[in-house]
Design brief:
The chain has 260 residues and is an alpha/beta fold. The protein has helices at residues 45-51, 67-70, 73-81, 99-106, 173-179, 206-216, 233-242, and strands at residues 2-7, 21-27, 33-40, 59-61, 91-95, 122-126, 132-135, 138-144, 152-158, 161-165, 184-188, 220-224, 246-249, 255-257. A 7-stranded mixed β-sheet has the order 6-5-4-3-2-1-14. A 7-stranded mixed β-sheet has the order 7-8-9-10-11-12-13. The structure holds zinc ion (ZN) (2 copies). One zinc ion (ZN) binds next to α2.
Protein backbone atom coordinates (compact mmCIF):
# COMPACT_ATOMS: atom_id res chain seq x y z
CA UNK A 1 0.00 0.00 0.00
CA UNK A 2 1.20 3.47 -0.90
CA UNK A 3 0.05 6.85 0.46
CA UNK A 4 0.57 10.06 -1.53
CA UNK A 5 0.42 13.19 0.61
CA UNK A 6 -1.64 15.59 -1.50
CA UNK A 7 -2.15 18.15 1.27
CA UNK A 8 -1.35 18.09 4.97
CA UNK A 9 -1.71 21.66 6.24
CA UNK A 10 -3.73 21.77 9.46
CA UNK A 11 -7.10 23.53 9.63
CA UNK A 12 -6.60 25.67 6.49
CA UNK A 13 -4.41 25.71 3.38
CA UNK A 14 -0.97 27.16 4.15
CA UNK A 15 1.80 28.81 2.16
CA UNK A 16 3.47 25.40 1.70
CA UNK A 17 0.39 23.58 0.48
CA UNK A 18 -3.21 22.45 0.72
CA UNK A 19 -5.24 21.18 3.64
CA UNK A 20 -5.72 17.45 4.33
CA UNK A 21 -5.87 14.99 1.46
CA UNK A 22 -4.17 11.63 0.96
CA UNK A 23 -4.28 9.28 -2.02
CA UNK A 24 -4.07 5.56 -1.22
CA UNK A 25 -2.99 3.08 -3.89
CA UNK A 26 -3.05 -0.70 -3.78
CA UNK A 27 -2.74 -3.29 -6.55
CA UNK A 28 -5.10 -6.24 -6.60
CA UNK A 29 -4.16 -9.85 -7.49
CA UNK A 30 -4.71 -9.12 -11.20
CA UNK A 31 -2.33 -6.16 -11.13
CA UNK A 32 -5.09 -3.52 -11.37
CA UNK A 33 -4.19 -0.42 -9.33
CA UNK A 34 -6.99 0.82 -7.04
CA UNK A 35 -7.07 4.42 -5.83
CA UNK A 36 -8.97 5.72 -2.82
CA UNK A 37 -8.83 9.40 -1.88
CA UNK A 38 -8.95 10.06 1.86
CA UNK A 39 -10.23 13.59 2.57
CA UNK A 40 -10.16 16.47 0.06
CA UNK A 41 -9.71 19.65 2.05
CA UNK A 42 -9.30 23.30 1.08
CA UNK A 43 -6.93 23.73 -1.85
CA UNK A 44 -6.25 20.01 -2.34
CA UNK A 45 -7.97 19.44 -5.69
CA UNK A 46 -5.17 21.38 -7.44
CA UNK A 47 -2.24 19.21 -6.29
CA UNK A 48 -4.37 16.05 -6.66
CA UNK A 49 -4.32 16.73 -10.42
CA UNK A 50 -0.51 16.82 -10.31
CA UNK A 51 -0.44 13.38 -8.69
CA UNK A 52 -3.05 11.55 -10.82
CA UNK A 53 -5.88 12.04 -13.29
CA UNK A 54 -8.83 12.36 -10.86
CA UNK A 55 -10.95 10.39 -13.38
CA UNK A 56 -8.96 7.33 -12.21
CA UNK A 57 -10.31 7.52 -8.64
CA UNK A 58 -12.28 4.48 -7.43
CA UNK A 59 -13.75 6.00 -4.25
CA UNK A 60 -13.45 8.88 -1.80
CA UNK A 61 -13.65 8.59 1.99
CA UNK A 62 -14.24 11.72 4.09
CA UNK A 63 -13.34 11.73 7.79
CA UNK A 64 -15.56 14.66 8.82
CA UNK A 65 -17.25 17.77 7.53
CA UNK A 66 -14.81 20.50 8.47
CA UNK A 67 -13.81 22.50 5.35
CA UNK A 68 -10.14 21.52 5.63
CA UNK A 69 -11.21 17.89 5.03
CA UNK A 70 -14.00 18.03 2.44
CA UNK A 71 -14.47 21.44 0.81
CA UNK A 72 -12.59 20.72 -2.46
CA UNK A 73 -15.17 18.03 -3.24
CA UNK A 74 -16.90 21.00 -4.91
CA UNK A 75 -14.13 20.99 -7.55
CA UNK A 76 -14.14 17.20 -7.89
CA UNK A 77 -17.92 17.29 -8.39
CA UNK A 78 -17.62 19.76 -11.28
CA UNK A 79 -14.81 17.64 -12.75
CA UNK A 80 -16.89 14.44 -12.53
CA UNK A 81 -20.23 15.96 -13.65
CA UNK A 82 -18.98 17.79 -16.75
CA UNK A 83 -16.05 15.59 -17.83
CA UNK A 84 -15.75 14.91 -21.58
CA UNK A 85 -15.74 11.18 -20.87
CA UNK A 86 -19.27 9.83 -20.53
CA UNK A 87 -18.25 6.47 -19.00
CA UNK A 88 -17.18 7.68 -15.56
CA UNK A 89 -20.26 6.37 -13.78
CA UNK A 90 -21.00 7.60 -10.27
CA UNK A 91 -18.05 8.02 -7.90
CA UNK A 92 -18.69 6.44 -4.47
CA UNK A 93 -18.23 8.99 -1.66
CA UNK A 94 -18.21 7.49 1.85
CA UNK A 95 -18.85 10.33 4.31
CA UNK A 96 -20.89 11.50 7.30
CA UNK A 97 -24.60 11.70 6.46
CA UNK A 98 -24.95 15.50 6.07
CA UNK A 99 -22.43 15.73 3.19
CA UNK A 100 -24.88 15.92 0.23
CA UNK A 101 -26.87 18.76 1.83
CA UNK A 102 -23.67 20.53 2.87
CA UNK A 103 -22.23 20.45 -0.68
CA UNK A 104 -25.53 21.58 -2.17
CA UNK A 105 -25.61 24.52 0.24
CA UNK A 106 -22.06 25.54 -0.67
CA UNK A 107 -23.02 25.31 -4.35
CA UNK A 108 -26.28 27.32 -3.82
CA UNK A 109 -28.30 24.46 -5.24
CA UNK A 110 -31.25 22.29 -4.24
CA UNK A 111 -30.62 18.55 -4.49
CA UNK A 112 -27.58 16.56 -5.55
CA UNK A 113 -27.81 16.90 -9.36
CA UNK A 114 -25.66 19.69 -10.82
CA UNK A 115 -27.18 22.19 -13.23
CA UNK A 116 -27.47 21.03 -16.82
CA UNK A 117 -26.81 17.32 -16.27
CA UNK A 118 -29.35 14.59 -15.63
CA UNK A 119 -27.81 12.63 -12.78
CA UNK A 120 -25.73 13.02 -9.63
CA UNK A 121 -21.99 12.49 -10.22
CA UNK A 122 -21.50 11.17 -6.68
CA UNK A 123 -22.94 8.02 -5.11
CA UNK A 124 -23.15 8.90 -1.40
CA UNK A 125 -22.59 6.17 1.22
CA UNK A 126 -23.12 7.06 4.88
CA UNK A 127 -20.40 6.30 7.44
CA UNK A 128 -21.08 5.15 11.00
CA UNK A 129 -18.97 3.96 13.92
CA UNK A 130 -17.62 0.45 13.40
CA UNK A 131 -18.66 0.44 9.73
CA UNK A 132 -16.65 -1.84 7.39
CA UNK A 133 -16.55 -1.88 3.62
CA UNK A 134 -14.18 -2.74 0.79
CA UNK A 135 -12.90 -0.89 -2.25
CA UNK A 136 -11.17 -3.40 -4.52
CA UNK A 137 -8.36 -4.98 -2.46
CA UNK A 138 -8.67 -2.41 0.37
CA UNK A 139 -10.62 -3.22 3.52
CA UNK A 140 -11.70 -0.06 5.32
CA UNK A 141 -13.00 0.22 8.88
CA UNK A 142 -14.19 3.31 10.75
CA UNK A 143 -14.19 4.43 14.37
CA UNK A 144 -15.86 7.54 15.75
CA UNK A 145 -13.16 9.74 17.27
CA UNK A 146 -13.17 12.74 19.63
CA UNK A 147 -13.76 16.02 17.75
CA UNK A 148 -16.44 18.74 18.01
CA UNK A 149 -18.37 17.31 15.02
CA UNK A 150 -19.19 13.76 13.88
CA UNK A 151 -15.72 12.52 12.95
CA UNK A 152 -14.15 9.22 11.97
CA UNK A 153 -10.69 7.73 11.85
CA UNK A 154 -9.96 5.00 9.30
CA UNK A 155 -8.14 1.68 9.50
CA UNK A 156 -7.25 0.43 6.05
CA UNK A 157 -5.76 -2.96 5.24
CA UNK A 158 -4.45 -4.14 1.88
CA UNK A 159 -1.52 -6.08 0.45
CA UNK A 160 -0.65 -7.39 3.90
CA UNK A 161 -0.19 -3.94 5.46
CA UNK A 162 -2.32 -1.74 7.69
CA UNK A 163 -2.68 2.03 7.65
CA UNK A 164 -4.44 3.91 10.46
CA UNK A 165 -5.52 7.53 9.99
CA UNK A 166 -6.67 9.64 12.92
CA UNK A 167 -8.69 12.17 10.94
CA UNK A 168 -9.04 15.00 13.47
CA UNK A 169 -9.20 13.77 17.05
CA UNK A 170 -8.10 14.39 20.59
CA UNK A 171 -7.02 11.45 22.76
CA UNK A 172 -9.71 8.75 23.02
CA UNK A 173 -10.00 4.99 23.41
CA UNK A 174 -11.34 4.46 19.91
CA UNK A 175 -8.24 6.13 18.43
CA UNK A 176 -6.01 3.71 20.38
CA UNK A 177 -8.08 0.80 19.04
CA UNK A 178 -7.95 2.16 15.50
CA UNK A 179 -4.16 2.47 15.59
CA UNK A 180 -3.50 -0.83 17.37
CA UNK A 181 -0.52 -2.54 15.72
CA UNK A 182 -0.80 -0.45 12.52
CA UNK A 183 2.23 -0.51 10.22
CA UNK A 184 1.77 3.20 9.46
CA UNK A 185 -0.14 5.56 11.73
CA UNK A 186 -0.91 8.83 9.97
CA UNK A 187 -1.82 10.98 12.94
CA UNK A 188 -2.70 14.61 13.37
CA UNK A 189 -0.79 16.83 15.79
CA UNK A 190 -2.57 20.12 15.27
CA UNK A 191 -1.92 21.55 18.70
CA UNK A 192 1.19 22.05 20.81
CA UNK A 193 1.56 21.57 24.54
CA UNK A 194 1.27 24.77 26.58
CA UNK A 195 0.06 27.09 23.83
CA UNK A 196 -3.17 25.15 23.22
CA UNK A 197 -3.92 23.76 26.69
CA UNK A 198 -7.17 25.74 26.96
CA UNK A 199 -8.74 23.63 24.17
CA UNK A 200 -9.83 20.06 24.79
CA UNK A 201 -11.65 17.46 22.73
CA UNK A 202 -10.46 18.92 19.42
CA UNK A 203 -6.88 18.03 18.35
CA UNK A 204 -3.90 16.02 19.50
CA UNK A 205 -0.51 17.53 20.26
CA UNK A 206 2.74 15.87 19.20
CA UNK A 207 3.00 14.54 22.72
CA UNK A 208 -0.52 13.05 22.73
CA UNK A 209 0.04 11.56 19.24
CA UNK A 210 3.27 9.97 20.47
CA UNK A 211 1.59 8.58 23.60
CA UNK A 212 -1.19 7.08 21.46
CA UNK A 213 1.42 5.52 19.11
CA UNK A 214 3.17 3.94 22.10
CA UNK A 215 -0.06 2.52 23.59
CA UNK A 216 -1.09 1.21 20.15
CA UNK A 217 2.33 -0.26 19.34
CA UNK A 218 2.45 1.16 15.82
CA UNK A 219 5.31 0.65 13.36
CA UNK A 220 5.84 4.10 11.85
CA UNK A 221 4.22 7.27 13.23
CA UNK A 222 3.75 9.93 10.53
CA UNK A 223 2.64 13.26 11.99
CA UNK A 224 0.40 15.56 9.96
CA UNK A 225 -2.19 18.40 10.09
CA UNK A 226 0.30 21.03 11.31
CA UNK A 227 -1.20 24.53 10.86
CA UNK A 228 0.79 27.28 9.14
CA UNK A 229 1.44 29.13 12.41
CA UNK A 230 3.16 26.13 14.05
CA UNK A 231 6.84 25.22 13.64
CA UNK A 232 6.66 21.48 12.74
CA UNK A 233 9.81 20.83 14.78
CA UNK A 234 7.82 21.50 17.98
CA UNK A 235 5.21 18.70 17.67
CA UNK A 236 7.93 16.43 16.23
CA UNK A 237 10.11 16.96 19.33
CA UNK A 238 7.08 16.46 21.61
CA UNK A 239 6.34 13.10 19.98
CA UNK A 240 9.98 11.99 20.10
CA UNK A 241 10.11 12.73 23.83
CA UNK A 242 7.42 10.12 24.55
CA UNK A 243 7.65 7.57 21.70
CA UNK A 244 10.80 5.68 20.75
CA UNK A 245 9.64 4.21 17.41
CA UNK A 246 10.11 5.70 13.93
CA UNK A 247 8.50 9.16 13.66
CA UNK A 248 8.41 11.45 10.65
CA UNK A 249 6.63 14.68 9.74
CA UNK A 250 4.81 14.45 6.41
CA UNK A 251 5.27 17.05 3.65
CA UNK A 252 3.14 17.77 0.57
CA UNK A 253 4.27 15.46 -2.24
CA UNK A 254 5.60 12.73 0.07
CA UNK A 255 4.93 9.15 -1.00
CA UNK A 256 4.83 6.79 1.98
CA UNK A 257 5.16 3.05 1.47
CA UNK A 258 3.20 1.20 4.14
CA UNK A 259 5.45 -1.70 5.17
CA UNK A 260 3.89 -5.18 5.01
ZN1 LIG B 1 -8.70 19.45 10.28
ZN1 LIG C 1 -11.74 19.04 12.09
Amino acid sequence: MRVHVIGCSGSFAGPQGAASSYLIEQEDADGRLWRVLMDLGSGAFGPLQSAIDPADLDAVIISHLHPDHYLDLTGLEVFWAYHERDDLGQLPIHAPAPLPDRLSAVLSRDGIVPDGVDRAPFDYRTLSDGHRFTVGPLEIGTRAVLHPVEAYGFRITGGGSTLAYSGDSDTCESLDELAHGADLFLCEAGYIEGRDDRFSGVHLTGRRAGECATRAGVGHLALTHIPAWTDPQVPLAEARAVHTGEITMVQPGDILEVPA
